[in-house]
Amino acid sequence: MSVVVSGVGTALPATVVGNDAFEDLGVTGEWIVERTGVHHRHRLQPGERLAGLAATAASRALADAEVAATDVDFVVAATTTPDRVSPGLAPEIGHLIGAASPGAVDVNGACTGFLYALDYAISRISHGSADRVLVVGADAMSRLTDPADRNTAVLFGDGAGAVLVEASRGETCEDCVPFLSFGSAPEHAGALFVDHGDNAVRMDGAQVYASAVEAMTDVIRSVLTGHEITEDDVDLLVCHQANSRILAAVVRRLKWRPERAASYVGEFGNTSSASIPLALGKAQDEGRLKPGHTVVLSAFGAGFTWGAGVLGWKACRHT
């Protein structure tokens, strides 16, 4: 079945944290930018809830698609930092936007979570069990950041992004059937993890960098081969916005032109599962994403897990 993204929405906390906030850690703004590309990040304040931020992004995605909340069949929320252990974020998002008792479930896939949630949404539509699925990526990584760890404290930000996924309103088109591929390497879980007792991200930056570049490059090549498309067929590459050096290295390995890839990590920092939909929303605002465009997505995160996919933006590809 032809499936497209028909709307996108984003939301960021009002509080902005610049690089000067980390001077007590013995780092300068130039040091942070050189190693991560991050200039500032947004943070939720005590008492502010992630559900409200996620619901704002979701409502904006519906407005962009010109679809009423009551027409949403299912809500999938990708998050590692829900407001409560249980129930999850998705049911509350559905309630806050005014959806009519949709199916709702959370997916915890760390930085790859949005792609897993997207794949789940596509599967439900392809199987005929839903017509419209709202996919939300939302994380408050400040809740899992050790403020004394300069290797991680400077990286992470909070945010939310959402897309509406629905069956194509036009004729069935092979070019509009999304294709996603995933992989994992749990033997390397110790390089990027959060333990219950510590409740903070711990990361071996060098290993994460090398593994992320290799895994995302390989899985992107895999989905391109599966769709029999080349760089010239791709309008935009949107990778998980983890680190500008990782993004640049993936593009170099692919031997693509740098302008083919979206890079907004400088504005948002690493927002985990929210980073891809935030980048999609920013790209559309800038006119880099238009109906009929072909988008390649890729992510890498704790687990290690990774994935990539090809989809049409708001219409069948090349129409």
Q: What does it look like?
A:
Strands 1, 4, 5, 6, 7, 8, 11, 12 and 13 form a 9-stranded mixed beta sheet that branches. A two-stranded antiparallel sheet has the order 2-3. The chain has 9 helices and 13 strands. The chain has 319 residues and is α/β, with parallel strands linked by helices. The two termini are 17 Å apart. The longest helix has 23 residues, at 205-227. The protein has helices at 29-36, 50-65, 89-97, 113-126, 150-153, 205-227, 244-254, 265-268, 275-285, and strands at 3-11, 15-18, 40-43, 74-78, 103-107, 132-140, 158-167, 179-184, 192-194, 201-203, 236-239, 293-301, 305-313. α2 (50-65) crosses α3 and α6 (205-227) crosses α7. The mean pLDDT is 94.
Brief synopsis:
With about 325 residues, the protein is α/β, with parallel strands linked by helices. About 30% of the residues lie in helices and about 25% in strands. It has 9 helices and 13 strands.
Architecture blueprint of SSEs:
Layout: E1 3-11, E2 15-18, H1 29-36, E3 40-43, H2 50-65, E4 74-78, H3 89-97, E5 103-107, H4 113-126, E6 132-140, H5 150-153, E7 158-167, E8 179-184, E9 192-194, E10 201-203, H6 205-227, E11 236-239, H7 244-254, H8 265-268, H9 275-285, E12 293-301, E13 305-313
Parallel strand pairs: 1-13, 4-5, 4-6, 11-12
Antiparallel strand pairs: 1-7, 2-3, 6-7, 8-13, 9-10, 12-13
Helix pairs in contact: 2-3, 6-7
Features of the shown structure:
two-stranded antiparallel sheet; about 30% helix; about 325 residues; alpha/beta; single chain
